[in-house]
User: Fold HTH cro/C1-type domain-containing protein from Cohnella kolymensis.
Amino acid sequence: MEFVLQQIRAGRVMRNVTLDQLASLTGLPVRYLEELEECRIDPQLSSLVKIASALNLTVRIGDISI
Assistant:
């Protein structure tokens, strides 16, 4: 899961999206997003879908793409 979270952070940074902006786009709290990027918590699938959609990313988890 750590690799997926690193991909999301890299995608956010490449798109010059701040955590505050991502929070606004996804409706997720900034603190939650910070903890995800720091790999302190495991994300819910619904959160990954929101984040990937907001950043226009495709994230692969095993055989699943979101």
User: Anything to note?
Assistant: Residues 2-60 form a domain with the 434 Repressor (Amino-terminal Domain) fold (CATH 1.10.260.40). The longest strand covers residues 60-61. The chain has a mean pLDDT of 90. The first helix runs from residue 2 to 14.
